[in-house]
Amino acid sequence: MSTVVGIAGLTGKFAQCVAKELYANHNVTLKGFCRSPQKLPQLAMEKYQIEVIQGQFDDEAAVRKFVQGTNIVICCYFGDPDVMTRGQKIPIDACVKEGVPRYLPIEQKLAGVHVLVGGLIETFWSDFFQIFDSHTQTISYWGTGDEKWDLTTYETAAAYVAALAVDKNASGVFRFRGDYKSVFEIKKIYEEVYQSPLHLKPLGSLGELYNTVKKEFGKDPNNVMAWAPGCFAYWCTNGVAHLGDKLDNEKYPGVIPNDMEEFLKSHKKEDIATVDRQLGF
């Protein structure tokens, strides 16, 4: 009998990467939950045989209908604090009421799995992070340049999440990583792969970055793009959120993680800033 996997937030890129990985490599039946099913390509829904339930994140009746009959629910929400807090609690409560045994990523009242993968490599190179300027081939960075980033590709992260979803014994916190590199090391890899210079532009200390993010957030918390990229960079490089050396990669040897070198070799130089737009269905 196949495992029934529910994926909340199915219109998101990562959710779709997980769905594709599950369908391709595991014996599963897929259910999806989102507020705008019309955004999902019909051909993909037919190919991956996904039953989609429509509803807002706080529609308790719709969420409960979504989790009914699933063996595990994967939540791929990304939004404001209400979505990321109350939006997580509602499906957890629904899982408890419907007897769903596992929920990913929050652990509360039922067997939960929380997945940590560091920063996503595709996002690192994208316009969102505001780190890489594809026109001038320049990385702008805060700190000394020696600070290392925990980095994983979307597809590698999705493969680990899919493996966890079908592993009925998995619970707790898992740490997976594709690579661990500083901007100086990334520069060296980039130049070796593309035989082209990558310029580096220092912006200031991590302390100055923290003050900049705090100032922009104070001006207008709703102007996410003014402070979120800097916030990501700060927490990815200040060491507090470092994944550490005790990773869980080896627990799932069937997943072969892509590192920064493999990612760059897999894409043309002129395409790396937009690879994230090609993800999903």
From TrEMBL:
This is NAD(P)-binding domain-containing protein. It holds the Pfam family NAD_binding_10. It comes from the Eukaryota. It comes from Hypocrea virens (strain Gv29-8 / FGSC 10586). GO terms for molecular function: oxidoreductase activity. Gene3D superfamilies: NAD(P)-binding Rossmann-like Domain. The keyword ATP-binding does not apply. Residues 11-108 form the NAD(P)-binding domain. Belongs to the NmrA-type oxidoreductase family. Isoflavone reductase subfamily. Keywords: NADP, Oxidoreductase.
